[in-house]
Structures are given as structure tokens and as C-alpha cells.
Specification:
Structural class of chain B: mainly alpha
Number of strands of chain C: 14
Structural class of chain C: alpha/beta
Largest sheet of chain C: 6 strands, mixed
Strand content of chain C: 25-35%
Distance between the termini of chain C: 40 Å
Distance between the termini of chain B: 22 Å
Number of helices of chain C: 10
Radius of gyration of chain B: 19 Å
Number of strands of chain B: 0
Strand content of chain B: under 5%
Chains: A mainly alpha, B mainly alpha, C alpha/beta
Largest sheet of chain B: none
CATH topology of the largest domain in chain C: Rossmann fold
Radius of gyration of chain C: 22 Å
Oligomer: heterotrimer
Shape of chain B: elongated
Order of helices and strands of chain C: EEEHEEHEHHHEHEHEEHEEEHEH
Strand order of the largest sheet of chain C: 6-7-8-3-9-10
CATH class of the largest domain in chain C: Alpha Beta
Order of helices and strands of chain B: HHHHHHHHH
């Protein structure tokens, strides 16, 4: 079930795209899985058809889904699309971290060591 | 022509105002019944009977026509597949129909009483003229309510008509030609009587025709 | 391309203190159009002209192919109209109104009507005068929805309603759109509702249409840029920018025709871009109205 958040300031079509990608990333929607029709999703989410259309168009442009005339849309049957999306997600977070560090004046080497520290802490917690 | 829709609208009005119709018919009947008694009681009967008709002639256009605008029901009605002219038709027919029920009942009742009792039949023509007056007033007020679009107009016309009613009694009483016919045991249809009756119905016809014309020309109906 | 469900061209209407000037809009089948504008902008008048309740002085109006107001009877068989100033008969029950409408329209869906009664929390045996404002609005909408008309024209369907009632109504309006043969035109102050469910947005102010277009494309044209400006420099108004507020070294520029080049252009003037934000329809509404009034020399 996709849910649109009102407090999320981003455009609705982006939220829809992100939630669809997340479903694919966690494996709920496997390769080739059919997506709900544009109208059905619009009705379920109570958003305009044009917004869902845009989300689907952008997803197709990014190669995440494939739309066939008269047959609807489905998740791309590319092997490892789920994994690919997860890596994209990671990349986005890394870019955010990098930008924030630059703003604060944290040098790359310091960033590296801090990242290692955080990673070690998490691994330690999970072991216990 | 949207016959069935106009019928629905008329039936709706009858349903909405049925209490009013029933009560006025009953009260009018009571007045009629009392007319047969001599003296003051008989007079009360006559006054009561006429008052009922006059009051109904005032209230019905208010309740049915003015309320449509004031109560904001007109927009609801005009959202139905109906034109302004058809709305006017439905309104006129339902209003007339609702008024005619008590009116015809009381006319027939009054005629029966005069014919059946020892009240001279010579009173029948003038009685008809007088009983038709509220009908004329009613048609005028319904027309004004439809065209005028505001309470102000109907109240103004109401005052004018009631004023005219009050003038009628002394005018009739002073007309010797009419008075001569009162005592006879057969109805006398003098030219004056016929002119009076004719004018009443002419006014009704004119009011309806003018109303239709003006309503059809409105460009901002709602 | 199918025929538009609504087409207004060159529509003009003059009143004593107000005039509609050159109104033009078009609604394609299967779409929802949100009509927004300040109070007194002309939304209700436009809608009444659409329904044939008011005759335009000039201009062509076609709804579902029918010329208005001449062919309004035929059109109204297929249009469901509800407006904020409409009132049902206080002395009668909800059920009486349902039966009245059902006796007129052949496409009345009684099963759907029952479902709506439940969803809206309405008691059919209750008299209209005993209902709250929200319940009355929902009753009026039920009468219009249960007929399954091809076109819904709604003048402020959610005004004055509590959030739950608003949500119930939006849900039903969205459900209508499941059928791509049906369309909706609604006017609202509530920019959030319009932003969420409209496919097309039409902006009206002081009797004139300011904008009428695809919602996504429209929202995409607007941005708020937050910039840091070197001391003593005044930020220039570039094409596509309709408003600049500057206070010391911080400035906020509102763009109504944003392209990425705009950001570059500002950086070339020495300003540093802190952020580029999307704007909500409400923010666009206010900026748009203020801007258009300035232009007209209000």
C-alpha cells in the first residue's frame, strides 16, 4: 500500500516514484511484477491521474518500469533491478553526507575515519 | 416538452404544502357551515369563509414561490433538466391547483347552501363575483412572486389587493342595480354582473400571459 | 482527440459592479479541473453560465456538446450540479429527496446510494433541517453522485467542512475518476484539495482567467529560490522571476517560469544559491494573485 505524506514537501509524483522504487528494492515487487493501472492507483491514493501518469513516465525514463500499449506497466525484467535501486539509494545518501561535510568543513580523511567509526559501532551493537 | 418532469415538480409542491391546503379547506368549510345561522353567527361564517380564501391567496404564493428563492431551493430545482419557462409552468400549475382545491370546494359548498336553504338565489351572481376576487388576487400575487424575485414586491401587491377587497363591499352595497337582484329567488345575470365576472377572468389571463413573457426573457434566472 | 466535455470561448458577462472578461477554458473527458480564485473572482458566475442558469452577454459555451444556455435541458440530464448556496427542503427527509431524484433520473444507482449513506454517516429518515452543515452538504452531494452523471459540476463542494467530511468527499470524487468517461469541474478555496486531485488547474481573479493548464506542468514552473547576495549588490529581476525580496545579504526570488539556467544566471551575478524549493499551490495562488493585480495596476 502506497501512502502519500502530507507533511512531505516534495511533489507528490516524486513521493510515488520513491515508494514504488522502495517496494522494488525490498523485493515486494519482483522483476516483471505488474503495476496497478494509472487510474486505479490515482483512485486509491486520491491523487490526480496526471500525477500518477507523470510518476510512471519518469520511472520508465529511469528504466525502472516498462509500459506496454494496452497492457499496462510492469517492473523491468532486468536481473537485479532491486539491488540496483538499493545502490542508487545508497549513492544518494552518500552525496548528502558529502555535501553536509563540505558545509561543515570536515575534510575527506576525517570523514572516512568517522564513517569507519560509525560502521564499527553498528556492527558491534548487532553482534551483542 | 418535459411533461413528466413538470408533473414531478407539481406533485412535489402538492406534497410540500398539503397541510396548508387541507387546513384552509377545513376552516373554510367550518365558516360555510356556520353561514346558515341567522344573525351574528351567520356573519362570522361569511367573514371567516372569505378571510380563509384571502389569507390562503396571500400565504400560498409566499410559501410556494417566494420560498423557492428565499430558501435557496431554486438553484436545486434549476439543476434538474428543466428550463426557466418549464419551471414557471410547473409553479403556476401547482399553485393554481393547490388554490383551486379549497376554492372550488368552497364555491360548490356555497352554491349548494344558497340553493338548498332559504337564502335567496338572487345572491348567487354577486356571491360568485365576490368569491372569484380572492382567486384574482391569488393569481396576481403568484405572478408578482414569480417575476418580482423578492418579498418586497409580493408584500406591496398584497397590501394593494387587500385594499381593493375592502373597497369592493361598500361599492357593491352602493350599486342599486346590483342590490335589486339580491332579494329575488332566481339568479339575475345583469350586464354589470357579467362585466364584473368577465373582467376578473380577463385579469387572471393577462397576469398569467405577462408572467410567462417576462419569465422567458430573464437572463439571470438564478 | 475526443471532443472536450466543456468548452468556453470569449465569454463575457457584465454586472453593475463586476464583469467577467474573455473567459476561455476547456476540459477534456476523464479529467478533473480545479477552478481556484479569491472570493468574488467570478468562479460562481462562470459555473452558473456553464450550467445555463445565467446567460452570457457574449461568447460560446458548450457542455457535453450542447450549446448553453439554449440546450440546457438536454445537458442537465447528464450533468450533476451542486453549489454551496443550494438548499434542500428543510421539512423533508433525506430519503424523500433521494426518492424525488430517483423518480426523475433513470441512471440512479440505489446500491451505490446506500453505500454513500453509510460512508457519509447519514440517516435517511432524518429531516434536512435537523442536519448539521456538513451532513447537509454530503446529502446534496449524495443526490448528485448516486445518479452517476457523465459530468459533475461542483461549486465549492468542501467549503466549511471538517477534515473528516472533506476526506470522505474527496474519496468519492476520486472514485468517480475510475471511469475514464466521466469528468469533474469543481471550484474551491481549498488549494490543498485542488492540488491533490486536479488534473487541470484554472486560476481566476477579478473576472479574468490568469492561468489554465496541466497541474503538474504548472507546479513545475514555479520555484522559490533562496540566495545569498554579496554586500551592496542588488539582485536583478531576470525573465521568469516575478518577485524578489531582499533583506541585507539574503534574498528570496519567486520564479513563475523556472528553468535550470535561471539558477546559473544568478550564480553568474555573484549570488550563491542556498536552495531551490518547490512551492505549494497555496503559495503559488497568493504570489500569482498579487502579481497579476500589480500588472493590471490595481
Amino acid at each position: 500500500m502506497l501512502v502519500i505524506s502530507q507533511s512531505d514537501k516534495r511533489p507528490i509524483y516524486l513521493q510515488i516514484m520513491e515508494q514504488i522504487k522502495r517496494r522494488i528494492a525490498v523485493g515486494d515487487w519482483a522483476e516483471g511484477h505488474p503495476l496497478p493501472s494509472i487510474r486505479q492507483l490515482a483512485v486509491d491514493l486520491q491523487v490526480s491521474v496526471i500525477t500518477v501518469k507523470r510518476a510512471y513516465l519518469e520511472l520508465e525514463r529511469e528504466g525502472v518500469i516498462i509500459t506496454q500499449q494496452g497492457k499496462g506497466s510492469r517492473v523491468t525484467a532486468t536481473a537485479g533491478i532491486g539491488l540496483k535501486l538499493q545502490h542508487e539509494e545508497l549513492q544518494k545518501h552518500l552525496e548528502q553526507v558529502a555535501r553536509l561535510s563540505m558545509l561543515l568543513g570536515v575534510k575527506p580523511r576525517e570523514l572516512e575515519s568517522r564513517l569507519r567509526e560509525v560502521s564499527d559501532n553498528i556492527t558491534a551493537k548487532e553482534k551483542s | 416538452m418535459n411533461g413528466s418532469l413538470v408533473r414531478h415538480m407539481i406533485a412535489k409542491d402538492f406534497r410540500l404544502h398539503r397541510e396548508l391546503i387541507i387546513i384552509s379547506t377545513v376552516v373554510g368549510f367550518i365558516g360555510l357551515a356556520v353561514v346558515q345561522f341567522r344573525g351574528l353567527t351567520g356573519l362570522f361564517g361569511i367573514i371567516g369563509f372569505f378571510t380563509t380564501l384571502i389569507v390562503l391567496a396571500c400565504i400560498l404564493p409566499q410559501a410556494s414561490v417566494v420560498m423557492d428563492r428565499k430558501g435557496q431551493h431554486l438553484t436545486f430545482l434549476m439543476s434538474l433538466p428543466i428550463s426557466a419557462t418549464q419551471y414557471t409552468t410547473a409553479k403556476m400549475l401547482s399553485a393554481l391547483g393547490m388554490f383551486l382545491i379549497p376554492w372550488l370546494t368552497l364555491v360548490i359548498g356555497a352554491l349548494s347552501i344558497i340553493l338548498g336553504s332559504d337564502i335567496p338565489d338572487g345572491l348567487i351572481p354577486i356571491a360568485l363575483v365576490l368569491i372569484t376576487l380572492p382567486l384574482v388576487g391569488f393569481c396576481l400575487m403568484t405572478s408578482v412572486a414569480l417575476v418580482g424575485e423578492s418579498e418586497g414586491w409580493t408584500v406591496g401587491v398584497m397590501i394593494a389587493i387587500n385594499f381593493a377587497y375592502s373597497l369592493c363591499w361598500p361599492l357593491i352595497a352602493r350599486n342599486n342595480e346590483l342590490r335589486s337582484g339580491f332579494g329575488s329567488s332566481t339568479p339575475v345575470w345583469s350586464p354589470t354582473i357579467l362585466t364584473l365576472l368577465g373582467s376578473e377572468f380577463a385579469v387572471i389571463a393577462a397576469a398569467l400571459a405577462i408572467t410567462y413573457y417576462l419569465q422567458s426573457r430573464k437572463r439571470d434566472f438564478v | 482527440m475526443m471532443d472536450p466535455v466543456i468548452r468556453m470561448e470569449g465569454v463575457r458577462k457584465k454586472y453593475r459592479y463586476f464583469a467577467l472578461d474573455n473567459i476561455a477554458l476547456e476540459l477534456q473527458p476523464g479529467q478533473i479541473m480545479g477552478l481556484i480564485g479569491p472570493n468574488g473572482a467570478g468562479k460562481s458566475t462562470t459555473i452558473r453560465i456553464l450550467m445555463g442558469l445565467v446567460h452570457q452577454d457574449q461568447g460560446d459555451v458548450r457542455v457535453l456538446g450542447y450549446r448553453m444556455p439554449a440546450e440546457q435541458i438536454a445537458a442537465k440530464w447528464e450533468i450533476g450540479f451542486a453549489s454551496e448556496d443550494m438548499r434542500l427542503y428543510g421539512a423533508m427527509t433525506v430519503r424523500w429527496h433521494m426518492d424525488f431524484i430517483r423518480s426523475i433520473y433513470p441512471r440512479w444507482d440505489e446500491k451505490y446510494a446506500q453505500l454513500l449513506l453509510k460512508r457519509f454517516g447519514l440517516n435517511p429518515e432524518q429531516r434536512i433541517k435537523g442536519l448539521s452543515h456538513g451532513q447537509r452538504v454530503k446529502s446534496t452531494l449524495l443526490l448528485v453522485l448516486a445518479r452517476c452523471p457523465r459530468l459533475l459540476v461542483l461549486d465549492e463542494p468542501t467549503t466549511g467542512l471538517d477534515p473528516v467530511a472533506r476526506h470522505e468527499i474527496l474519496r468519492e470524487l476520486s472514485a468517480v475518476m475510475k471511469d475514464e468517461g466521466r469528468s469533474i469541474l469543481f471550484s474551491s478555496h481549498n488549494t490543498h484539495d485542488v492540488e491533490q486531485i486536479s488534473d487541470q488547474i484554472t486560476f481566476i481573479d477579478r473576472g479574468r482567467i490568469i492561468d489554465s493548464m496541466d497541474k503538474e506542468a504548472y507546479l513545475d514552473r514555479w520555484r522559490r529560490l533562496r540566495l545569498e547576495v554579496p554586500l551592496g549588490v542588488e539582485l536583478p529581476a531576470l525573465p521568469g522571476i516575478i518577485d524578489i525580496r531582499q533583506d541585507g545579504r539574503l534574498a528570496v526570488a519567486t520564479a513563475n517560469e523556472f528553468v535550470p539556467d535561471l539558477a546559473n544566471a544568478y550564480e553568474n551575478t555573484g549570488a550563491r544559491i542556498q536552495s531551490i524549493e518547490n512551492m505549494t499551490l497555496e503559495e503559488i495562488f497568493v504570489a500569482n494573485v498579487e502579481h497579476s493585480r500589480e500588472e493590471v495596476g490595481a
